[in-house]
Amino acid sequence: MDHATRKDGADEARAQLTAALARVAAEDRAALRDVYDRTSAKLFGICLRISQDRQGAEDILQEVYVSVWKRAGSFDPKRASPITWLATIARNRAIDWKRAQGRRQAEPVETALQLADDRPLAPELLIAEEERRRLADCLEMLETRHEQAIRRAFFDGLTYAELAERMDVPLGTMKSWIRRGLMRLKDCLDNG
């Protein structure tokens, strides 16, 4: 096939596609089918190349022909060839789809983080257990009244005033016991 014959064939195909798009603009469903038959393989290739997803490309292609149905009246053969116009629609739809997929793929990650198991890992549990043992050992080394005051203040949530009343000592004394007990507890934990 020589160059002139190929050019004549391309010109004829372009003219037929342009005429079919004009009929689509007039809401001719058979013309849309003709446009689909003539261009779907090429447009599917564009959608697949951009989306990298066969099912996605099929969905995009469907959206392309919905757009063609709605926008065929805006096609101007003086500005672009029909296949260029169609390829531009396919390309833009595929890019929009790919961007939307990027946003959707980000969401499961966020959801996964929201649903992540916040329980401590085994090493953290071991460290926490070690710290509890050290704290218990250091508490036992304190004078009994200091130990009781600290346990009730920090584990039971009692105030200085409540502790002083329950242990029948002046408020200032209770504050001193807790302060001295905490200093000894800190020294024990730091040096243990």
Automatic annotation (TrEMBL):
Annotated ranges, domain RNA polymerase sigma-70 region: 36-104
Domain RNA polymerase sigma factor 70 region 4 type: 133-185
Pfam families: Sigma70_r2 (PF04542), Sigma70_r4_2 (PF08281)
GO molecular function: DNA binding; sigma factor activity
Keywords: DNA-binding, Sigma factor, Transcription, Transcription regulation
Xref: CDD domains: Sigma70_r4
InterPro entries reported in the protein's UniProt record: RNA_pol_sigma-70-like, RNA_pol_sigma-70_dom, RNA_pol_sigma70_ECF_CS, RNA_pol_sigma70_r2, RNA_pol_sigma70_r4_t2, RNA_pol_sigma_r2, RNA_pol_sigma_r3/r4-like, WH-like_DNA-bd_sf
Top-level taxon in the UniProt lineage: Bacteria
Biological process per Gene Ontology, one example term: DNA-templated transcription initiation
NCBIfam families assigned: sigma70-ECF (TIGR02937)
Family, as annotated: Belongs to the sigma-70 factor family. ECF subfamily.
Protein name: RNA polymerase sigma factor
Source organism of the structure: Sphingomonas cavernae
